């Protein structure tokens, strides 16, 4: 097991460089639209300030190309100042004399939030000179940014190679929960997988064919599976180059005796018409955008029998209210389930929040790509580089 902040002794007065994932949605005026990722980080920050550490927070926001005031972390410092029982300050840079001076001014138990690390091209290039400069400011590195742990960047990977290190509470919870899903799920275990494209989900599909008892497939990627079975899908989105992949996944499921559920009816439209058609068989001029009522019943009945459920990916084009019914129904079924339920992925978490179901889900992963990568491979680069706990 990796070292956690509980394994770190005598943090009093130490400068802790804490990498977090404050990549939260904001409007152009700097209003935070969803503070979930900030709230889930507070226990780690509160523990460190309770240990009288001097906490310097590093985070990214979006994918800016150079400085972009709309991607500044300054509004997050305001949120933290209201949420934490300590002095919170903000520095509008990440390296240089100003950062050094601001850190020298920190008192024990204070927090300093640095500017968006992705304003620097050296971050995503994992530039070691950039990382060494930042490392020189601190005594200990703590990585709690699970959402970026699948990437080798300067402030989540390189810093761990340069300083004594550990993971925070959020990272620990993510790893423990996802490891249980991989190694010891309750049975029956149902995996619900949606989204648009198979090519981004091949490994996770293959993994769950092995691990789960039932795999439920929705979203646009279901149409590639249906076409692989020679079922008419009209003008629905199909990845023709993944049809053989779909066939192999279905064949593997059959060999392993696993159940794969695919849509049996659809909510469609024709051309640009706003009219929605609910059909069991699509016509060549139809495009499918959501699962139909028979499929909803089929899927929700299977979820009701489960003791473990993992969900990633919407069942249709949920951002359009005309085609939100299927995703909403599945979200409700999972929320009402007596199973242990986990949700991962940006769109899926957004869906849960949209329907105000977060409190009814046992575990909501803060990672998108990181969640899938961990489930696919059982490890992540920015976690592997952390020191092992002393036995």
Quick structural summary:
By secondary structure, the chain is α/β, with parallel strands linked by helices.
Task: Jot down its keywords.
single chain, 391 residues, alpha/beta, six-stranded parallel β-sheet, 16 helices, 37% helix
Provide the helix percentage. 25-40%
Beta-strand content bin: 15-25%
C-alpha geometry: elongated
Query: How many β-strand runs?
Result: 15
- The end-to-end span amounts to 9 Å
Radius of gyration: 23 Å
Number of helices: 16
The helix-and-strand class reads: alpha/beta
Low-pLDDT runs of 5+ residues are none
Order of strands, main sheet, comes to 3-4-2-1-5-6
Average pLDDT, all residues: 94
Largest sheet: 6 strands, parallel
Describe this structure in words.
- The chain is an alpha/beta fold and 391 residues long.
- The chain contains 16 helices and 15 strands.
- Strands 3-4-2-1-5-6 form a six-stranded parallel sheet, with helices on both faces. A six-stranded parallel sheet has the order 9-8-7-13-14-15, sandwiched between helices.
- Helix 6 packs across helix 7 and helix 9 packs across helix 15.
- It starts with 14 loop residues before the first strand and ends in a 7-residue tail after the last helix.
Any chance you could write out the topology, listing elements then pairs?
Elements: E1 15-19, H1 36-39, H2 42-50, E2 54-58, H3 74-83, E3 88-91, H4 97-105, E4 111-114, H5 121-124, H6 128-135, E5 140-143, H7 154-162, E6 165-167, H8 169-183, E7 189-193, H9 202-211, E8 214-217, H10 221-228, H11 243-256, E9 259-261, E10 266-270, E11 277-279, E12 286-291, H12 293-304, E13 308-312, H13 325-336, E14 340-343, H14 346-354, E15 363-364, H15 369-377, H16 381-384
Parallel strand pairs: 1-2, 1-5, 2-4, 3-4, 5-6, 7-8, 7-13, 8-9, 13-14, 14-15
Antiparallel strand pairs: 10-11, 10-12
């Amino acid at each position: 097991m990796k070292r956690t902040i509980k394994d770190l002794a005598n943090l009093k007065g130490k400068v802790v460089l804490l990498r977090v994932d404050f990549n939260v949605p904001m409007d152009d005026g700097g209003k935070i639209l969803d503070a979930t990722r900030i709230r889930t980080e507070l226990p780690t920050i509160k523990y460190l300030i309770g240990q009288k550490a001097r906490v310097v927070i590093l985070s990214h926001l979006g994918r800016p190309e150079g400085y972009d005031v709309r991607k500044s972390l300054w509004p997050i410092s305001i949120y933290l100042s209201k949420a934490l029982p300590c002095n919170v300050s903000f520095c509008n840079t990440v390296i240089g004399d100003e950062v050094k001076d601001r850190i020298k001014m920190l008192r024990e138990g204070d927090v300093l939030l640095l500017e968006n690390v992705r304003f620097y091209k050296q971050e995503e290039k994992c530039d070691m000179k950039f990382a060494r400069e930042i490392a020189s400011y601190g005594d200990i590195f703590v990585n709690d940014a699970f959402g970026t742990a699948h990437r080798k960047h300067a402030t989540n990977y390189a810093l761990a190679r340069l300083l004594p290190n550990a993971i925070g509470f959020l990272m620990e919870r993510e790893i423990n929960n996802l490891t249980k899903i991989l190694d010891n799920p309750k049975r029956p275990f149902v995996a619900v997988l949606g989204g648009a494209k198979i090519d981004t989900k091949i490994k996770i599909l293959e993994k769950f064919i092995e691990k789960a008892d039932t795999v439920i497939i929705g979203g646009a990627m279901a149409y590639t599976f249906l076409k692989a079975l020679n079922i008419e899908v009209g003008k629905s989105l199909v990845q023709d180059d993944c049809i053989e992949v779909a066939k192999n996944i279905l064949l593997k499921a059959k060999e392993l005796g696993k159940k794969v559920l695919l849509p049996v009816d659809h909510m469609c439209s024709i051309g640009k018409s706003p009219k929605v058609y609910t059909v069991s068989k699509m016509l060549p001029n139809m495009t499918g955008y959501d699962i139909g009522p028979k499929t909803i019943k089929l899927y929700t009945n299977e979820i009701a029998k489960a003791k473990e459920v993992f969900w990633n990916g919407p069942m249709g084009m949920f951002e359009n209210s005309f085609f939100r019914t299927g995703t909403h129904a599945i979200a409700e079924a999972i929320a009402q389930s007596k199973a242990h339920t986990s949700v991962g992925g940006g769109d899926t978490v957004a869906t849960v929040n949209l329907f105000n179901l977060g409190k009814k889900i046992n575990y909501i992963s803060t990672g998108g790509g990181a969640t899938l990568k961990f489930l696919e491979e059982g490890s992540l680069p920015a976690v592997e580089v952390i020191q092992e706990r002393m036995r």
